[in-house]
Prior knowledge:
The chain is α/β, with parallel strands linked by helices. The protein folds into two domains: about 25-275, Aldolase class I (TIM Barrel, Alpha-Beta Barrel); about 330-400, Orthogonal Bundle (Arc Repressor Mutant, subunit A), CATH 1.10.10. About 40% of the residues lie in helices and about 25% in strands. It is built from 15 helices and 16 strands. Helix 12 (about 330-340) packs antiparallel against helix 13. It starts with about 25 loop residues before the first strand and ends with a helix.
Amino acid sequence: MSSTEAASPHPNPPPQAGEGKEGQAFGVYVHWPFCLSKCPYCDFNSHVRHAAIDEDRFVRAFVREIETTAGRVGGREVTSIFLGGGTPSLMQPKTVAAILDAIGKNWRVASDAEVTLEANPTSVEATRFAGYRTAGVNRVSLGVQALDDASLKMLGRLHSAREALDAVAIARRSFDRYSFDLIYARPDQTPEDWTSELKLAIAEAAEHLSLYQLTIEEGTPFFGLHAAGKLKTPDEALARTLYDVTQEVCDDHGLNAYEISNHARAGAECLHNLVYWRGQEYAGIGPGAHGRLDIDGVRHAISTEKRPEAWLMRVEAGGHGVVVDDLLNSEERADEFLLMGLRLAEGIDPRRYQALSGRPLDPRRIALLREEGAISVDSEGRLRVTPAGFPVLDAVVADLAA
């Protein structure tokens, strides 16, 4: 995500909903790493396989890694589950059901747990939505990315705009909660074009949109094209105008930005992503998944083997695919809390930062950033980045953490 992406303050920050008895939400992230094709802008851990995927074998590995992880952090109540990728909607509904059943067998799952599955908006995958709902999914996030065919082709997407809107309609019938993603600041995109596209998206999305500026990531095909001058993205001024349009149109339609790139009606925020941004615990399951777990009072930063087949063999041999298990010291944990928490319109409680790091934020730096209009502090001491500060969020975080 670009540092030029920003959010306006949410008038009523979403409550700490769905939290366990100790005031902490606990999420489980499951990564399905396979895609039909690799999008030219994507640097996620996704892989294309031309041979059939042995879903039964992968399911057994997912179940085993869930069992091993729960053995390390038992006694949690799962408040959210997110099946991401890759393309999870390439899984058969029975595969999703087996994974969710394994989570339910190894942890308590809250009765109101949010269970999200990412899906491509193709007609084939949309036919599985009813099966996912039966399996236990209650929220779907669709990778629409654009609502015009020329842009979809440029982005390497395999669906048309019409097919995407048809899939959204099927999602609307299948799930009470759904969202979709769009990428803006695309080549040749004008503010007028984006305004029209965004209004159409809001009419279809109902409660939640994830809106990302196109970023050129090293190692992707777009990176080489951009470096060669064959892919021209909006300059800084136009990108800022497109960002401003995003905020204004969404605010006008009641979808306030509760995080830099995520807009929702009050109460429709993605609870799983709030786990990340609020610095709470989550388990990472599957190839290339990340987790943050508290074990014996210490925060563990965990990641698994990225290569799907190598992960599979690790799990079959040892019960898990973990390749990194770092212990975060108090300063590292506090800095991560600051970096993630300031992405939210609700901001952070500086007292939690002090409890994590053992030192308060520098009041002189807070005063200077307030004077510059980059942050605000409310009557209860909660610190928020302002609309003027969000475009330079990285600098704000670096200044406060220094």
